[in-house]
Write a structure and sequence with these properties.
Layout lengths: L6 E7 L7 E8 L5 E9 L5 E9 L7 E3 L2 H25 L1
Antiparallel strand pairs: 1-2, 2-3, 3-4, 4-5
Length: 94
Amino acid sequence: MNSNKYKYEKHYIRPLMTPENVYVFKFGKEDLNNRLIIKYSHTWTGRIKINEIDLRLHKQQHPRIFKRESELIKYLKQHVAQQAKKSDSEVKSK
């Protein structure tokens, strides 16, 4: 995140009634307006099992929900490519 000039905060939410642990990451270039929520649990052998990943990028009404980290990375690569094309076309039109 720091290498791409993104600011971020991370918070751990301690569960009360559920067996899931939750990490919340807020990130953005100027404002912390993007949010990533990772819900995970531990298997009986002690390994971490990701149950759900919720991603809410700037101004999205409904979060994108992923079951695997690879799905999240694939979506983010596509989104970054789309944003780069959009910013290039805005610069050319000016």
